[in-house]
Amino acid sequence: MSSSVLPADFLRAIAEGFPPDFLTREPGELQEFGRDWTRVYTPAPSAVALPRSTDEVARLLALCHQHHVAVVPSGGRTGLAGGAVAAKGEVVLSLQRMARMGPVDLLGNTVRVQAGAVTEAVHHHCAGHGLTWPVDFASKGSSTVGGNIATNAGGVKVIKYGLTRQWVLGLQVVTAQGQVLELNGALEKNNTGTDLRQLFIGSEGTLGVITEATLKLTQLPGKLDVFLFAVPDVAAVLRLFRDARQQTAFGISAYEFFTDKCLARLQRHRKLRSPFDASSGCYVLLEAEPRDAAAVEAWLGSLFERGLVTDGTQAQGASQAAELWALREGISESLSATGMPHKNDISLPVAGLEGFCAELESVFAARYPGWEICLFGHIGDGNLHVNIMKPDDMEKAEFLARTKQADPTMFELVKKHGGSISAEHGIGLLKKDYLGYSRSPAELELLRALKRALDPQGILNPGKVIDA
Asked: Under a CB-based contact definition with an 8 Å cutoff, are residues 266 and 334 in contact?
């Protein structure tokens, strides 16, 4: 179904079988729930469903399957690939009312939560027990657990903890036909054939709707040192990373970088102050768990002697650490608030970053002469966020056309260096046409076969990731 007109029998069944506030067609809510952070596509859902339980999700999907009604699952809508966009009359299935969090299991170090639980709320829920779900990123205040799992979210701590899929023990999933699956429970070990829960992690709502999850927790880290360094360019960012990774005085929990152009946009939007008097080409935020305080001090002193940094500061306490982190975590929001960025989220093998970045400069010079390029990312796990800013005097349509023509050049370079066209944002609508740069024809056919098997009518997030 690609029309905003829903079948009368479907609407009658909703009215008779669900609470009066289950479905809304209020124009403002259709606009709000029909989009994500991409702001590229015009939202046009036919309705928004707001279930409170897995049972309501299951009965809704069974009706949608019966009446061939397309559904777009929706979490915090913080995605940047168009994966939560409803632009063709679909019903948005929002999990925001399903935010219950169960008690923390202190023996198993787990917690069971509904898919609509906000990431930061889960952090607070577990922190009182000295535990955390170590999935962390700038949008943690609005992203939800279900969305994190559906996109296999990354974030700022991947270098230490890995991706979301490493921290999900069990899933409750509703299939396109309305069948409820309980996958793996709270088991650490379950060697009974193919791990079905992994089919749904990272599938962007195209194979089933995640309604609950059993999350694996870990101990909150101890004392953390947070540093901000100024370096001249991306090559210097990589040299500093290589040096930091060889140290035994501390363990790295985050290694982030951003350019001077990112900082300028951030300061324009949020009026944050740089701790440095002089500007620099790039900045590195390092969060480390110290093992030997004296050795850390010696290493810091050597950085200047060896010319690895031009300036630096260390946070003195939690509030200063938060201020330094704000310089990194506020970038994505600030780019969108001060202009129109064309975003690319790419990853490379860490060992191949230096060669890739050297060639990337030539791509920018050829494809975007004189344009503003804002680079930032998680260097520690090989993830670069490439933001091409729309020139002020260029129309939106021309900008989108120019960037779409140029993307294949970058993706060819990514493929050449053994990388991925999407590190953590997913495929959604924005990257769908380019999936072949990272997946072989045989892989693509297997993905299509999975889609056909689990969603034969193609009602779940249709048009996203891959067509069956």
From this structure: yes
